Amino acid sequence: MNNWITQVVTVTGMNIRSLPQRWGSTMVAVVGIAGVVMVMVGILSIAAGLVDAMTDKAPKDIAIVLRAASTGEMDSIMSRDDVTAISEAPGIARIDGKLLISPELFVIVDVLRRSTGTASNVPMRGVDANVLAVRDNVRITEGRMFEAGLNEIIVGRGAQEIFEGIELGDTPRWGNNTWTVVGVMEADGGMPESEIWADVRVLQAAQNRGSTIQAVRVKLESIDVFDSFKDFLTADPRINVSVKTESEFYSEQSRFFSIFINSIGIFVGVMMGLGAIFGAVNTMYTAVSARTGEIATLRALGFGASPVVFSVLVESLLIGLAGGLIGAALAYLIFNGFKISTMNFQSFSQVTFSFAVTPALLKSGVIYALLMGFLGGFLPSIRASRLSISTALREL
Amino acid sequence: MKFLPLIWSSLARKKVRTVFTLLSVFIAFLLFGYLSAIKAAFQGGVEIAGVDRLIMVHKMSLINPLPFAYKRRIETTEGISAVTQASWFGGYYQEQRNFFAQFPVDPQGYLDMYPEISVSEEQKQAWFADRGGALIGRGIANRFGWQPGDRIPLISPIWRNKDGGNTWEFTISGIFDAGVEGFDTSNMIFHHEYFDEGRAWGDGLVGWYIIRVDDPERLQDKAKELDAMFANSPRETKTTSEKEFLQGFVDQVGDIGAIFTAIISVVLFTLFLITGNTMAQSVRERTAELAVMKVVGFSRRRLLSMVLSESMLVAVLGGGAGLGTAWLIVTTGGDPTNGFLPAFYIQTKDLVMGALLVIGVGAVSGALPAMQAYRLENIVALRKVA
User: Fold this and answer.
1) Which of A23, A147, A209, B1 is the most buried (most CB within 10 A)?
2) Where are the beta strands (DSSP E) in chain B?
3) How many CB atoms lie under 10 A from the CB of residue A252?
């Protein structure tokens, strides 16, 4: 056994020392694998970032109540009576005896995108003064909260970075109303950062919505009471609503987009990976054939076939590892934290989020690179072990 | 040409190597073709937008409706040859994930406005005659397997009907195809009258207007003129060319499109580097043989052209098969999201680009080793043989 290990170490060391002689083709194999890992991790980080902003950052103890059959907040409609019925449900958290319940209006307004100067549908939400107690993940980090009854708005940090004309103190005009930006809000990168908030009554008037609202958010005593809260409301004959946790709601909203992006990422990754494996196979074949004489000499000296196989595999795994690490590092440097805004067709409005190159993605990138290296080295290593010693030595 | 067998035999010399090289070229161009179809999807039909059409929406945003009464005022404006309306129905079939776009429209007016909608005369007449009838795009027909004559209930969360429910019944009158490659067939159109009479609220309101201008040169002027007409009213308008309107959606999807274009470039660069190297390697390895050929009397020029033809042959075989397969998958397999994407096809310019790239890869990957072979001194070359 010791002897076998010594043989492996010797042959592998010899291979690696001779690497500089084949620098060109080795580098191409490394670059190929690095490219695959970078592209795949990069694409997958888009979906990971969206899911992170929409689902992971959603508060765990908030339920959202919509009209039954609606596909989102945009096409839901509810009355003040619905809100009264909802407030009778059990399990709603209170502060100083006051129920933590937030009736909200959800519309879109045209705001210009900084990068193109063209209009985008930015979500605008009407909320009441109670909202920061219900959605306690939202903080005003600059300026102040809007004042009830006034045409004042607060703007999400993410939306502000992507769109223009909504800086603190700006006075955007939508329809026949002019608003003043009085505050900036943050929510650890969650959905409110994509939005603009105003007083619900002012927004109802501006949008000719009467006293209707679209969604009711409720802070629950804890997530454990969610089922009984939901059962109570769905059993109530006066109202016709659907009840979801906020993370459940946003995970449905992001599902199509994340599946779409993930399938593109995996498809591109697998196809490119095949290309890279073919490249690695050719590189390793060249490596083996360049060392035919050396391998034959070793075999003639009494080295076994398996250390030779092993050494070729180690070399190609090293190529895979180098490519994987370079690709993962590049993906992290280029993509991580890159902030964009895109259309969420489920809500017909812009969602702002940052790409997330997660540790899990980096790990799978490197593992994939090792797999490519292994597959690239497999056939050539078999060829190396099957070399006919006498033929090879004759060529020396 | 008489050297074709020689080229062939040099390819057959290391079969495994040649097969892997061909496969990697194949994959590079398969991906190129497929990704350009995805890129076309992100461009959302901007390239085929009508040059004489304007789209008028509410100034605040597309979701706010416009009065039906605007139609007559637009119609009678000088320089406008046609106007028709559409609205957003926002329905789904059975479950929310079976969502697709439906528009209540004026049948004759809408089909006149969009000659891109290709439907048989017989189905068209059937649709005109049936007020509860609908025309569905080929994409939708494939997605749900619907046939003319099928009755389908759709649930619209936005539009409650007069029975107090949200379920609306339609009969499929026919299926329309894209008369122009890339035209969106992922939607359904039905009678505005049926919609207007059935809905419980929103009387006299429509979603947007599509307007045809006599002279495409005056598109922008007419847009300004129309907006001025409704300025300072409770419902102000924003009128843009169809191209700008669609481009607006592309911009809304935003940087993702640009990121994909960048990613495609990285993908192609990587793959072409790998394939180029593989092809070059196979020539480098045969330096000795080339030397022998030179010594036995092959001219430098001949050797050069043989090496180049060989790499060109590999590029054309592998790349052609790759592009062809991509085209087949995209054309017959269709959209990977099964009808969600408004367009999914390989644009002609991308096919031409692909063909040029095939030649480019063949030339570049053959040229370097070919030049080495060209410069080879007989004596140096022969030393490698020994």
Assistant:
1) A209
2) 53-58, 66-67, 80-86, 101-105, 117-118, 133-137, 151-155, 167-178, 187-191, 205-206, 208-213, 237-241
3) 17
Tokens of A52: 């992170």
Q: Which residue has the tokens 């909608």?
A: B117
pTM across the whole model: 0.86
Q: CA-CA distance, B80 to A317, in Å (whole number)? A: 69
Residue of B nearest to A346 (CA): B99
Dist. CA B330–CA B119, nearest whole Å: 23
Chain A residues closer than 8 Å to B166 by CB:
69
**Does residue B276 contact residue B364 with C-beta atoms inside 8 Å?**
yes
pLDDT in the model for residue B340: 63
| Cβ–Cβ gap A285/B17 under 8 Å | yes
Q: Do B60 and A109 touch (CB under 8 A)?
A: yes
- Written as one letter, the residue type at A181 is V
**Which chain A residue is nearest to residue B264, measuring alpha carbons?**
A39
Residue B206 pLDDT:
96
**Cα A252 from Cα A231, distance rounded (Å):** 20
Q: Which of A174, A169, A92, A172 is nearest to A130 (CA)?
A: A92
Main-chain dihedrals φ then ψ at residue B105, nearest 5 degrees: -140, 170
- State yes or no: pLDDT of A241 exceeds 90: yes
User: If you count residue pairs, one on A and one on B, with CB atoms under 8 Å apart, how many are there?
Assistant: 156
ipTM exceeding 0.85, yes/no = no
Q: Per-residue pLDDT averaged across A75-88, rounded?
A: 93
The residue extents of the domains of chain A are: 2-56+253-394, 69-239
List the beta bridge partners of residue B153.
B169
Lowest-pLDDT choice from A258-272, A325-339, B52-66, B246-260 = B246-260
B270 to A272: CB separation less than 8 angstroms, yes or no: yes
How confident is the model over A165-203, as pLDDT tens digits?
A: 999 999 999 988 999 999 999 999 999 999 999 999 999
How high is the mean pLDDT of chain B? 87
Q: Is B264 left (phi over 0), alpha (psi -120 to 50) or beta?
A: alpha
Sequence length of chain B is 386
Where would I find the H helices in B285-347? 287-295, 300-328
Q: Between the CA of residue A5 and those of A11, A18, A259, A304, B346, what are the distances in Å?
A: 10, 20, 46, 11, 54
Q: Mean per-residue pLDDT for A27-41?
A: 92
- In sign, the C-alpha dihedral spanning B280, B284, B289, B295 is positive
Look at the block and give the residue holding tokens 């092959």: B298
- Residues 108-137 (A) with a CB less than 8 A from some CB of B: 108-110, 113, 115-116, 118-121
Q: Give the C-alpha distances (Å, rounded to integers) separating B193 from A367, B130, B197, B206, B208.
A: 60, 11, 6, 11, 16
Provide, as residue numbers in chain B, all residues whose Cβ is less than 8 Å from the Cβ of A256: 97, 337, 340
Structure tokens at A337: 């934290």
Instruction: Give pLDDT, residue B274.
Output: 79
Contact A111, A100 (CB under 8 A): no
How far apart (Å, rounded) are the C-alpha atoms in residues B339 and B342?
7
